[in-house]
TrEMBL record:
Sequence intervals crossing the membrane: 36-59
Residue ranges annotated for the Methyltransferase FkbM domain, each copy included: 224-380
Name listed for the protein in its UniProt record: Methyltransferase FkbM domain-containing protein
PANTHER family the record matches: EXPRESSED PROTEIN (PTHR34203:SF13), METHYLTRANSFERASE, FKBM FAMILY PROTEIN (PTHR34203)
Keywords: Membrane, Transmembrane, Transmembrane helix
Length: 416
């Protein structure tokens, strides 16, 4: 039986972890459209503060409290502070010397909770400052009108996109195009979503990992499907938000419905990382973690550090969601994202993503490992543009981008 349509759905954090005793919290059930829903305020700082407080205290990771107050009532217990809580990285990606001993320090539950809360507050203050600064970089934009990928015979649907006035390859391409952009890929994704059901069907969720300026997220949301996005670069979060709330995109006076953008990077573990981009391609963010976050690495790759970002696991963020389709555009971090999404991938019908031997190898992975992962997960993958070629042949022939469409042969939905 088809579930009831939920126009205002929500994201639920991970299931109860019996080992840590963290309580499962449903974030803002019945709220406006989710905990970090496109940051709708005209001045977005307040929304970001509240959203981050709610989410980061609920989801396991570097800023969630290690113990509930019930644990704090047991003074005989001691715990080692999770190093992630105190990961106040310096600009070279390493913990400052004054924190190295703290990582090993034995603290009581109450002290651990206070340390976690202090780290959370510091992170929130830094995030708001980062957001305000990054917004200024893309505050001005040009409104461009495109045709949404409607089905054959359907009325034409126009979509307005806020194109930032900054040096960026995607922005420059959007300004040049007249009416359509990446039409084959956009139409293919829209057609796959229609296989799921009609717009508004609660089963038909599109997950966009690496939203960038929001082209795919906005197009699918404009068709009426629910969209959940993850974007590490705050400039892109803001640009997508502005597009969603342009008057031309309104539905009965409201912004594009059912679109949520989470300002986090997806990965295979929880950690604080850095977002960097090339000065000539400012909105093409690269998430650098650990040793890759050093000054000499940034200089060698001609990348400029923009701001810090929190990584999350898709298995946790999408614990109660069964996406019909997922799109990845994560600049070579595909395997890291997918390793943190093993459970949710079992419930995804289609995955569309870019892949590049060069970018994968920069992140320490290979195309062969990526293809082996898909095979082990029960997916059948093929090149989107060269459908009759074997993917291994494509990767041997091309070091740069290839569009890949993967189909889950073992697909099992939460809704069936």
């Amino acid at each position: 039986m088809q579930p009831a349509i939920q126009r205002r759905s929500f994201i639920s954090p991970p299931r109860r972890n019996s080992r840590s005793g963290r309580e499962r919290l449903r974030l803002l059930r019945g709220g406006s459209r989710g905990p970090l829903h496109t940051l709708v305020c005209a001045s977005l700082g307040g929304c970001l503060i509240v959203s981050l407080v709610v989410l980061l205290t609920a989801v396991p990771g570097p800023f969630s409290l290690l113990h509930q107050r019930s644990h704090a009532c047991q003074p005989s217990q001691e715990t080692t502070v999770d190093a992630r809580i105190l990961q106040d990285n310096d600009k070279d990606g390493q913990p400052p010397p004054q924190h190295q001993q703290q990582h090993q320090q034995q603290l009581t539950p109450i002290e651990a909770e206070r340390s976690a809360a202090a780290a959370l507050v510091a992170y929130l203050v830094q995030s708001i400052n980062d957001y305000d600064r990054e917004v200024q970089a893309v505050a001005d934009c040009d409104e461009r009108t495109f045709r949404a990928p409607t089905a054959a015979g359907s009325p034409e649907r126009l979509l307005s996109v806020c194109v930032p006035r900054t040096m960026n390859l995607v922005s420059e391409s959007l300004r040049r195009e007249k009416g359509e952009w990446e039409k084959p890929q956009t139409m293919a994704i829209a057609d796959k979503m229609r296989e799921c059901g009609s717009p508004g069907d609660a089963r038909c969720v599109f997950v966009d990992v690496g939203v960038e300026e929001g082209w795919y997220a906005l197009n699918i949301a404009a068709l009426g499907y629910k969209v959940i996005g993850f974007e590490a670069m705050l400039r892109n979060v803001y640009a997508t938000t502005r597009s969603a709330h342009l008057p031309a995109n309104s539905f009965e006076g409201s912004a594009i419905p059912d679109i949520q953008i989470y300002p986090f990077a997806a990965g295979d573990k929880y950690e604080r990382c850095v977002v960097a981009s090339n000065p000539r391609n400012t909105l093409d963010g690269h998430t650098l973690c650990g040793a890759s976050n050093t000054s000499h690495v940034l200089e060698r790759a001609n990348l400029t550090r923009r701001h810090d970002v929190q990584t999350v696991l898709l298995d946790d963020m999408l614990a109660d969601v069964s996406p019909w389709m997922m799109k990845l555009d994560v600049e070579g971090a595909e395997l890291k994202v997918l390793r943190g999404a093993r459970e949710v991938l079992k419930r995804v019908k289609y995955v569309f993503h870019e892949a590049s031997r060069e970018l994968l190898e920069e992140k320490g992975d290979t195309p062969e490992e990526l293809l082996d992962f898909w095979k082990a997960m029960g997916f059948s993958c093929r090149p989107f543009q060269f459908s009759r070629e074997d993917l291994r042949t494509v990767f041997r022939r091309r070091r740069f981008m290839a569009d890949i469409l993967c189909t889950n042969l073992k697909f099992v939905s939460l809704y069936t």
